[in-house]
Amino acid sequence: MRVLYFAWLREKIGLGGEDVLLPPEVETVGALIAWLRGRGPGYAAAFADQKLVRCAVDQDFAGPEAAIAGAEEIAFFPPVTGG
């Protein structure tokens, strides 16, 4: 599965994206975030406040309870603002 990071998440993690092989127990966006937090200090900093992170599973917005089985791409990004 391809995981993409945008804006300040990319800066904290140090990657724009990566291919990951998830353990079987990682079945939702929330579980993925928890798993990513454990991968190092950059990930922990990027996902420290889950309320500041938005997610899209295969380009559709998804909440923490969304299933990720069979997804090809998961993107994490900050909330979009504008005017």
Provide an overview of this structure.
- It is a single chain.
- The protein has 83 residues and is of the alpha+beta class.
- The chain has a single domain, classed as Roll (Ubiquitin-like (UB roll)), CATH 3.10.20.30.
- The chain is 25% helix and 22% strand.
- The protein contains three helices and five strands.
- Strands 2-1-5-3-4 form a five-stranded mixed beta sheet.
- Strand 3 and strand 4 (60-61) form a beta hairpin.
Strand order of the largest sheet: 2-1-5-3-4
Under CATH, the homologous superfamily reads Beta-grasp domain
Number of helices: 3
CATH architecture field: Roll
Shape: globular
Q: Class, according to the CATH hierarchy?
A: Alpha Beta
Protein topology:
Blueprint: E1 2-5, H1 8-13, E2 17-19, H2 29-37, H3 41-46, E3 54-57, E4 60-61, E5 73-77
Parallel strand pairs: 1-5
Antiparallel strand pairs: 1-2, 3-4, 3-5
